[in-house]
Specification:
It is elongated, with a radius of gyration of 17 Å. It starts with a helix and ends with a helix. It is mainly α. The relative contact order is 0.10.
């Protein structure tokens, strides 16, 4: 599974949790929404890190030419 596929799967799961949270008891909904926000932030951080690594790799390739 590629990183892009993993990210898409995570985002799909987060969407499912959000839909479930909409129909849940208010206390449970709040807890689920907090977890969705935390996981979304973590996913964004991973995407940012991958982008940074890709940029570094591109610069290194340029240096090796």
């Amino acid at each position: 599974m590629t990183f892009i596929e993993v990210e898409a799967e995570i985002r799909a799961c987060l969407n499912t949790i959000e839909v479930t949270a909409d129909t849940a008891d208010p206390k449970l909904r709040d807890m689920l929404e907090l977890q969705v926000n935390n996981l979304d932030a973590a996913t964004n951080a991973l995407v940012d890190e991958l982008n940074t690594l890709n940029e570094k790799q591109a610069r290194l390739k340029e240096l090796l030419k």
